[in-house]
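Chapter review: from sequence to fold.
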Amino acid sequence: MQRKSFNKCVSCNGTELLSMAFSNDSKLLAVGYEEHITTTLGIYDVYNDFNCLKTIVYKDGGNGISSLSFSPDGRYLAASIEDNVTILSTTDWSCVYTTTPEFDYIYQTLFSPCGKYLAVCGCNGLLDLYTVDHWEHVRTTNISHEDGESIKCMSFDKHRNQLLYGTSNGIMYVVDMNTENLKIIKGFVCGYPFISLTHSPDYRLVAGEVGEPSADSDRKVLVFSTDTYKIVADLFANNTDEFHMMCLRHSSFITSFSPDGKYLTNGSNSSNMVTWSVDNWRGYADTIPPHYTMIDYAFPFAYSPDGKYFINGGCKELVVWNLFKWSDKNNIYFGSNIRCIVFYMISLFYKGYFNELHIEMMLEIIE
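The token string follows.
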């Protein structure tokens, strides 16, 4: 089970946070949020106590920033604002390129792991591909095969040089990036509209959140093996109705593996997140303590690539958590929470609930 320790809350100049992304070196955090008809992009210095380095306001971005992506080398940040894609230089945060794809709405903007391409997907079943060196529009490919079908999410497979994308009609396609016309080499029907896709750090697994966008419909997370693309885990399917209603009805559109690949997390628009252990797919409902933050939902969220931080957002705040090592045998928090546990145990000892042996065992666990 993954353990987190509360670090701090960071105030934001917006009511609703919609997207966030870390740079690959974990030094920068980009956050997109909105306030009525104003959309704001905030850039935070992670290693300098999450101080805000830059704030950029887009007055015409009524629906906020739907997606953020740093280039692998950290030189660029791509932000999708309604039907526009804006590329910023991370040197001085100036705009180096802006384009308007033929989409009614952009769902995701994503740099390829090799750093050569920027992929953009959205409504109308279209996928745009741009070269990063000159921001040349390479091609617009209609790789959706049914009217009204949208490409909702994407994820690159670095090891196989493939692009996976999920559609609103419940089909996951595997595209060969080595072919000029983005040849589809595989397609899988899961029966549920795709909402998000993410690869594990070793690219052996790909997880997708599926279900209708309506909060009244069932939502779950499917995990596929990238060798066979067979489902290896159908999460939530065997849970109780109470757990099912608590977690599924408030799904966040975001699913992400931890940087070490040991955990898979799904957020929510309530105060709950769910984290599964990849070893046995056992899930834990991870509730955000209300006294830590003003927010009442855990969306969006992101792991820092260096594995030090977990960030979740909500109403007017970013919540920063430290990630610590975990003792599976003893179920103990490591880090700043350990002092609280010791003092709590000592207080119970003086009240007669524990004896000297319990305290000695606790100190051995800590050491």
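Two observations follow directly from the output. The helical segments are 241-248, 337-350, 356-366. The chain has a mean pLDDT of 77.
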